[in-house]
Amino acid sequence: MVLFVLLRLLPGDPANALLSVGADPAQIEAARAQVGSNLPLWQQFLQFLSSLLRFDFGNSFVSDAPVTREVLNRLTVTLPLTFMAFVLAIIIAVPLGVISAVKSDRWYAAVITAVSQLGIAIPAFWMGILLVMVFAIQIRLFPSGGFPLRGWGAPLEALHTLFLPVLTIALVMAASLMRYVRASTLEVVGSDYLRTARALGDSFASAFWRHGIRNASIPVISILGIELGTAFLGAVVIEQVFSLPGLGSMLLMGIEQRDYPNVQGVLFISTLLVLVVGFIADVSQRLIDPRLRHSAGARS
After folding, report:
1. How many angstroms separate the CA atoms of 227 and 230, rounded?
2. Which residues contact 80 (CB under 8 A, 6 or more apart)?
3. Same-domain check for residues 212 and 96
4. pTM for the model
5. In a domain, 75, yes or no
6. Whole-angstrom Cα distance, residue 16 to residue 28?
7. 63: how many CB neighbours lie within 10 A of its CB?
8. Dihedral of alpha carbons 209, 212, 214, 219, sign
């Protein structure tokens, strides 16, 4: 409902995307009938809702191509980009966050913390431009943008093309995630149960692995769900920097052309994926932390 209403609040008529300069009233009315903008808003909404229940976003006003098929095609770029960046961010952030907490009195821990703060302050699109300048223009190691015409039919070429976009999102995400890992680890390192385990003879590494990892991971998992959703939305922006044929270019083109079905399809799928990721994070948190299951059982 929000998607539908906000789009219709924008000035102008989506039928203009089908008209050339100097169109006569008959052509204008025919274009409005084609896109359905001549119908009352309540009728347009009922049609939109009816199609949505069948998971059908209709056809593009401009190309007349099915929006659902186009969204699924473009997800083959956006989803791999998001998940590869997400995995790389975890690989970077978790060990560095743990090191900066466990070795908080060392100089390199301070450096790691300072670098993470700097990474948070840098916008993702600017990070992408910097990486393009270094690795694409100066070193010429990776392409500055684009995607193979054969798509994943040429996997090595596709991975080579996605390296810089993946690295861009991963670095920005890792900087934010590192702070949460560090804070969670510091809380565990100073906990009574970890000191008790060490007093009973365990080494720090053994006590932290047996008792600290699970407790430190519980708050981080909820953050991972948020970060994955943010990475997906960030990928839509980064795709513009690297000229990738994902959901980002489809959304921008739909907004420029007032192509309501395309915009509604992209935003609905994006919102749905973010909600699904949040749900998976909540379920994972309950599976890892028995206290959540016990508290739920006590209330029932």
Report:
1. 5
2. 152, 162
3. yes
4. 0.78
5. no
6. 8
7. 13
8. negative
Q: Is residue 67 part of a domain?
A: no
User: Does the residue 60 lie in any domain?
Assistant: no
Question: Which token pair is 276?
Answer: 């699904």
Annotate 123-135 with DSSP letters as a single string: -HHHHHHHHIIII
The two structure tokens encoding residue 167: 């690295």
Q: What is the full per-residue pLDDT of the chain (300 aa) written as tens digits?
A: 887 888 777 777 777 766 666 677 777 778 777 777 777 888 888 888 888 888 888 888 777 788 888 888 888 898 899 889 989 998 998 888 888 888 878 888 888 888 888 888 888 888 888 999 999 888 888 888 888 888 888 889 889 899 999 999 999 888 888 888 888 888 777 777 777 776 777 776 677 776 667 677 777 777 887 778 777 777 878 888 898 888 888 888 888 777 888 888 888 888 888 888 888 878 877 777 666 655 555 555
C-beta separation of 68 from 56 below 8 A: yes
Measured in residues, the chain has a length of 300
- CATH number of the domain to which 182 belongs: 1.10.3720.10
Is residue 199 one of the residues assigned to a domain? yes
Pair 84, 49 in one domain: no
Total domains in the chain come to 2
Question: In terms of domains, do 99 and 32 share one?
Answer: no
Q: What is the domain range of residue 21?
A: 2-53
